[in-house]
């Protein structure tokens, strides 16, 4: 959790949505831990981490080998054989029990704390959720099979050392092997990382989230890394990495 909270501390979208996290740090920590556990136990989801080892010359003396510095959450969507095989990895009885525990924890929290998490601005959160659904309907529903990068964070002390790139490359390499595209909804802070790894804007349109009557707002971008076959076709057409086929 330290990596997530330290890695997203200066992310505009994170700060905008959880605007009261400094007043209620316990809520921010606990509810995000529930969210991460739920992600881990979902079928089709892969969580990868980067840890320090003896070869890391930038490692602070106070940070031991094995210190977690970055993580990513990838999710495989679709009904092809690769997607089914990925989901089957979490189809066991223990995985089902884990998901049941997550559901019970969520229910328990709603009963003990009916007012909900105190770190959130619920009006902004509602706008964000509505906006993400609109993004899904506009872009992602056109794809039957794809990998989506749901969450990426690197501890502030260890940025610009390649950890995030390594985690992004894992997903795009697997997507190329499976012949499917990758998608991500990115804040302005993460956009350069994805563009440097072959993602392109799905459109020039920026998605702006804003509560009516407020001056503060945040924006996000939808980026796609088209499948290997599409990139070959696109290159042959002289269009660089633009998506040229209908999906």
UniProtKB/TrEMBL annotation:
Gene Ontology molecular functions: acyltransferase activity, transferring groups other than amino-acyl groups
Signal peptide: none
Family matches, as InterPro entries: Acyl_CoA_acyltransferase (IPR016181), GNAT_dom (IPR000182), Trichothecene_AcTrans (IPR052523)
N-acetyltransferase domain sequence ranges: 87-219
Identification of the protein by name: N-acetyltransferase domain-containing protein
Lineage, uppermost ranks: Eukaryota, Fungi, Dikarya, Ascomycota, Pezizomycotina
């Amino acid at each position: 959790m330290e990596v997530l909270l330290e890695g997203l501390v200066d992310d505009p979208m994170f700060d905008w949505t959880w605007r009261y996290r400094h007043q209620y740090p316990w809520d921010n920590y606990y509810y995000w831990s529930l969210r991460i556990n739920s992600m881990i136990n979902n079928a089709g989801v892969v969580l990868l981490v980067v840890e320090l080892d003896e070869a890391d010359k930038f490692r602070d003396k106070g940070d031991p080998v094995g210190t977690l510095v970055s993580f990513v959450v990838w999710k495989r969507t679709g009904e092809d054989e690769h997607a089914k095989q990925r989901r089957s990895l979490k189809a066991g009885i223990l995985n089902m029990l884990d998901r049941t525990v997550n559901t019970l924890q969520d229910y328990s929290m709603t009963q003990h704390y009916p007012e909900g998490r105190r770190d959130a601005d619920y009006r902004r959160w509602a706008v964000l959720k509505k906006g993400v659904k609109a993004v899904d309907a506009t872009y992602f529903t056109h794809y039957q099979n794809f990998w989506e990068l749901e969450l990426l964070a690197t501890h502030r002390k260890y940025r610009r050392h390649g950890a995030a790139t390594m985690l992004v490359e894992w997903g795009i390499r697997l997507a190329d092997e499976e012949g499917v595209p990758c998608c991500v909804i990115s804040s302005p802070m993460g956009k350069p990382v994805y563009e440097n790894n072959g993602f392109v804007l799905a459109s020039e349109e920026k998605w702006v989230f804003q509560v009516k009557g407020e001056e503060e707002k945040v924006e996000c971008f939808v980026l796609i890394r088209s499948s290997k076959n599409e990139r070959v076709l696109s290159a042959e057409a002289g269009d660089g990495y633009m998506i040229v086929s209908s999906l």
